[in-house]
Amino acid sequence: MPKFSIQGPSQLQGEITVAGAKNHALAMIPAALLADGESILSRVPDIRDVKVLLNIVENLGAKVHHEAGQARIDARALSSSTIVPTQSGQARASIMLIGPLLHRFGKATIGHPGGCAIGRRPIDQFLAGFQALGAEVQDTGEAYEFTAKQLKGATYFFPFVSVTATEALMIAAAGIPETTLLKNAAAEPEVIALAEFLKQLGAQIEGAGTHTICITGSRQLQSSSAAMIPDRLEAGMFAILAASTQSRVLIKECNPEHLESLLKIFELMGVNYKRGADWLEILAGGVWRAPGKVVTHEYPGFATDLQPPLTVLLTQAQGATLVHETIFEGRLFYVDLLNRMGANILLCDPHRALVQGPTPLRGKRIESPDIRAGIAMVIAALIAEGETVIDNIYQIERGFENIEARLKALGAKIAKSE
Ligand code: EPZ
């Protein structure tokens, strides 16, 4: 199995250009299936999760042309409404295809969607949401069978915020020529960007970026084109990587406004940085103060996807920090791997970990549990004394384009081997 071998400690330097956002692209691909024509998505990251979803869409009959950075999608040739479990199991985002399939075929079948092993990842919000829009849902044990002669506008209140459930219902509602009101909706930048694209297709949408989104769709949606927004999770990871390795790194083509909660934590810790409209420069050197408490929260709060990388930085800060992971119940177990490297982290319960720092880290043989914990292991390896070998790196490559070469360009001693 492919693995990374990393020599540490490494001080890095240079500049990095942020890729288009994975989680924006994964919502845009289903949205493109609403259109009567070919849509063009640019700045699409060349990563496994995107390739998997494009492959599912192609298997449904759509015409897909994917080359470096660009995906052209034409749904006019769609011929199937079934996503088999072996495919849906590889891409949680596949559930966002249900709306376009219902509009086109009046039915859709999908195996249980997969996703990072960071918790149970149920889909009850999707099922309830589609039922609110008039779909019938049958759980056959093997798959979920959706049927709807015609979806209808509705008001749906999310009992808790769900990013892709918000996006899935927005996409479905964009094809309904009535008004749908989504309450307690997600307000992530990717949701706002998706709404902009749906408006380009011909839907009327108000309130994207707030917790109440009003959508009036249409049966005739025309194709359009859009560029993915900068990946705030990649930009944040590189910022944390620079601070963790006491490196000066310029992060280009990002949007620092999407990272305010991380930058606030940096200020509390004493991590110096400079910022511009589309760049962020982390300045080298310093003694980091433990911020005391970090709580993950829906946007604009501190992103759960940055929690694992930040926890690595916290192992190098002076003092104790309580990390409270409020979104997922299985997103802290990687701390055992950091403790094997020399960290001092007490896992109080599935949602809370107490990090004591600073602790020197030593290279070990570890594995990558999921995308974000995987890249956190890379950061830990760059701090640690000696060699670290990370197995299961396909998890990291699911979310970060060309990561080995990009880290090498910053001076990291990293090598990939079978
Ligand atoms: C999206 O996942 C992102 N994925 C995740 O990024 C991100 O961590 C998460 O939002 C939170 O920001 C994509 O956008 C493709 P949720 P999503 O529904 O939508 C529970 C990464 O590394 N829930 O907002 O699946 C759920 O278990 C990935 O890029 C239900 O209970 O997350 C969680 O506790 C990882 N029932 C909470 O809601 C449901 O039907 C929020 O999850 C749906 C969700």
Describe this structure in words.
By secondary structure, the chain is of the alpha/beta class. It starts with a strand and ends with a strand. It binds ligand EPZ. The site of ligand EPZ has 26 residues, from helix 1, helix 5, helix 6 and helix 12.
Low-confidence stretches: none
Which ligands does the model contain, each kind named once? ligand EPZ
Tell me, briefly, the overall form. Answer: elongated
Give the radius of gyration: 21 Å
The largest pleated sheet is described as: 4 strands, mixed
The average pLDDT is: 97
Oligomeric composition of the shown chains: single chain
DSSP strand (E) fraction? 25-35%
Roughly how many Å apart are the termini?
A: 5 Å
Number of strands: 24
Which sequence of strands runs across the widest sheet?
22-23-1-24
Share of residues in helices: 25-40%
Please work out how many helical segments DSSP would assign.
14
Which structural category fits the helices and strands? alpha/beta
Summarize, please.
Helices cover 32% and strands 26% of the residues. It contains 14 helices and 24 strands.
Secondary structure layout plus pairing:
Elements: E1 3-8, E2 13-17, H1 22-32, E3 38-42, H2 48-59, E4 63-67, E5 70-74, E6 82-83, H3 85-88, H4 98-105, E7 107-111, H5 124-132, E8 136-139, E9 143-147, E10 155-157, H6 163-174, E11 179-183, H7 189-201, E12 204-206, E13 212-216, E14 225-227, H8 232-244, E15 248-252, H9 260-269, E16 273-275, E17 279-282, E18 293-295, H10 307-314, E19 319-324, H11 335-340, E20 344-349, E21 352-357, E22 365-367, H12 371-383, E23 386-391, H13 394-399, H14 403-409, E24 413-417
Parallel strand pairs: 2-15, 3-14, 6-7, 10-11, 18-19, 22-23
Antiparallel strand pairs: 1-23, 1-24, 3-5, 4-5, 7-9, 8-9, 11-13, 12-13, 15-17, 16-17, 19-21, 20-21
Helix pairs in contact: 1-2, 1-7, 4-6, 5-6, 6-7, 8-10, 8-12, 10-12
The structure holds ligand EPZ.
